[in-house]
Amino acid sequence: MADKTHSEPGTPGVLSRLAGIAVVAVVLAGIYVGYQALQVLFPPNTYETAMLATVADTVSADGVLLFDETYISGSGTLGYLAADGERVSAGAAVAEIYSSPEQAGLRQQLTALNDQIELLQRSQNTTATQLDSLRKERSGALYDLMDALDSSAYDETAQGEENYILAQNKLWVITGEVSDFSAQIAALTQQSAQVQAQLGAPTQIAAPQTGYFIRSTAAGRLNAGADDILALDAAGLEAYLNSDPELPLDGCAGKLVSGFTWRYVGLCSAKEGEKLLGDNGKPLTRSVKIKFPGQMETPLKASVSEVSIDEASGLARFVVTCEVINGDVLRLSRAKAQIIVDETTGLRIPIEAVHYLKEDGTESETQGENYIPGVYVKYGNLARFCKIDPVDSAHPLVTDGDYCIVMPSSTDKTKTISEVRLYDEIIVSGQNLYDGKLL
């Protein structure tokens, strides 16, 4: 058998192959370096979609809520007949005292039975013409229930569940799946009467006056009166807040808040406190909003009553007055708040994407008084220059990090000259951009 010939290292065949590999490597390295150089000299265009955003100018504060409140005496094993935030009339029963835990359980059972009876009675009050609206009502109730669960608003889930069951029951009546709920109502009524007999007549606690009720288990009280707190200056308020001023409602069934107006006496930095002042140095005359992060996220319309800035301590004391009341607010005594001074809604545009054109159409490197601001937008394979509003009193500069908020395009040119639309592809960076450039 013939011997196979192998090239030994150092022979011409091996050397030529190694030389070829080296040449290929050098060429590839050259291509890579050239590509990187081109990327530096002529970087590719980058884009960002114009999205709608709301930027709020806020003041963060710590403070206390002042209500016109009356405490309702009561102790022992209590059961409640009124919900937190419910407005009750003078003399209405808001709670009752139980002699045993079993009696408390009977009240809960009786309340549940009566709620079921009422729901079934309401379910029968429907007509065949409501079919489409009830289907929408059922869907809406389901979505509301899911939203409440997603947002952890568990207080709202019970109402959402009731609305869904009510719509479903009415649909069963209309479609003939259920003739009526008479048998169920009769059975529940009989059961309710038996539970009522076992419950007896517990001692009830009545509201001394008309107002909004809040349970003692849901709220506390401040250890100082409203007048004393309102008399504190910034340093005094800071000391008061640091003294742990909230106490439990011991020996009380709850409290009643009369009227619709309440006040928030807050403390913030002097710099943020200036946001609550107008150009004349007096409290803002326009409305603001107040919310309590982590406790009540829904902002409520309010007004600024007082602002005093203590330059020596670097603090500002202020009073905000609100005429919107609900159970969430009533639960608060001492709380951190956010005062929303102003809100701007518009398109979120990268600041680096803004260009300024001179009157002759050439681009300026810096902003000028008469230069036209705008951004380049990708329309198909063309770059188009779209104006945005210049910064002035009607269109103040609002930023959000590395972005600015601009007005979206509108047919009403008295409000905005902006030509940028929602979802436009903004060219953030590009070489030698001009209107009509082929991309």
Automatic annotation (TrEMBL):
Keywords: Membrane, Transmembrane, Transmembrane helix. The chain crosses the membrane at residues 14-35. This is HlyD family secretion protein. It comes from Faecalibacterium butyricigenerans.
